[in-house]
TrEMBL record:
One of its GO terms (cellular component) is membrane. It is a single-pass membrane protein. Keywords: Membrane, Transmembrane, Transmembrane helix. This is Band 7 domain-containing protein. Residues 81-279 form the Band domain. The chain crosses the membrane at residues 34-54, 60-80. It comes from the Bacteria. Residues 187-219 are annotated as: Disordered. Residues 201-217 have a biased composition (Gly residues). It is found in: Membrane. The keyword Transmembrane applies.
């Protein structure tokens, strides 16, 4: 008897492109063992051969014997057509005169209705490599991205009857989902900060003649205006997002996506050199900022200690000269060259 149909939930978030839900309801059934049928076929072959033998040897001479023998052979060929062998994790979708009759998942040597049209397909895990694809990220920089997707056929009837070629369907949907993912996120946090707009607020005063002055400060736009996840640092989160997107796209045609991982991520060759220099410059700026903050702290402590020991405040000119000299020594890349002021 057919088992109860299973219909996955394929609802998509609001605003997302919808994928047509499958109209095929899969039913599974069990076939009978092929060994009794094979024994019957062997008996029919022997009976047909014996009837042909008797038809040519007196005293039994009957024109019906060859006809019965031919019928035995034809029935044998008809029964043999229903034999099928399924390996573990294989399925056969059965059609009778164009109408879906059920899916056979029973492994072994089985016999089906010889009038069934059968299409076998594998239920094993498969690996799909997508990319590398050239895509523009959220801020417009061209990047190369690739992914590895592990999937399997969960409902053989839908995979066979809903799409013409489910392998090509998986490939096309994987590429589409990967492009969509890359276009929604920046490559790294630096690009995200550069692309994030600011909103200005300010106050001003003016005279009646039409002149006025005003000041304003920039405030970053709300964080939800841009995604906080980057392609370079959010691999686990992006893999989860990609997996959910693929599952929503594949479920209507009976495909189950088990895992999705980003396997390749890099800047496109035409901008790779420039972006690497930008990253190096950002690292240098960050290092300089730390060095400068440390130098200012050292100079502040040194001046305070010196004035405490001298018992009086230094002259502004002396403080400026000392600060300048200490900054040169502490921040400079090269060793400082001492000079002697002779007063000339």
């Amino acid at each position: 008897m057919p088992s109860a149909p299973q219909s996955p939930n394929t609802a998509r978030p609001e605003g997302e492109p919808s994928i047509r839900s499958g109209h095929i309801t899969e039913y599974t059934f069990r076939a009978i063992s092929a060994w009794p049928v094979l024994a019957t076929c062997l008996a029919l072959v022997l009976a047909g051969a014996w009837l042909f033998y008797l038809a040519g040897h007196p005293p039994i001479l009957s024109p019906a014997l060859p006809v019965v023998g031919i019928a035995c052979f034809l029935l044998t060929f008809f029964l043999l057509k229903g034999l099928i062998i399924l390996q573990p994790n294989e399925a056969a979708v059965c059609l009778l005169f164009g109408k879906y009759k059920g899916t056979l998942t029973q492994a072994g040597f089985c016999w089906l209705n010889p009038f069934y049209t059968r299409q076998k397909l594998s239920l094993r895990l498969k690996t799909q490599e997508t990319g590398p694809l050239k895509v523009n990220d959220a801020v417009g920089n061209p990047v190369e991205i690739g992914a590895v997707i592990i999937w399997r056929v969960a409902q053989a009837a839908r995979a066979t009857l809903e799409v013409d070629n489910y392998g090509l369907y998986v490939s096309a949907q994987s590429e589409t989902a990967l492009r969509l993912l890359a276009s929604r996120h920046p490559y790294d946090p630096t690009e995200q900060q550069d692309a994030q707009p600011t909103t200005g607020t300010g106050t001003g005063t003016g005279t009646g003649t039409g002149t006025g002055t005003g000041t304003g400060t920039g405030v970053p736009a709300p964080a939800d205006a841009f995604s906080s996840i980057t392609l370079r640092d959010g691999s686990d989160v992006l893999a989860s997002i990609l997996l959910q997107e693929l599952q929503l796209r594949m479920a209507p045609v009976g495909i189950d996506v088990v895992e999705a991982r980003i396997s390749h991520l890099a800047y496109a060759p035409e901008i790779a050199g420039a972006m690497l220099r930008k990253q190096a410059a950002s690292a240098v700026i960050a290092a300089r900022r730390v060095i400068t903050q440390g130098a200012v702290s050292i100079i502040d402590d040194a001046l305070a200690d010196l004035e405490a020991r001298m018992g009086h405040q230094l002259e502004p000119q002396q403080r400026a000269a000392m600060i300048s000299n200490l900054l040169v020594v502490l921040i400079g890349d090269r060793e400082a060259t001492p000079t002697v002021n002779t007063g000339l």
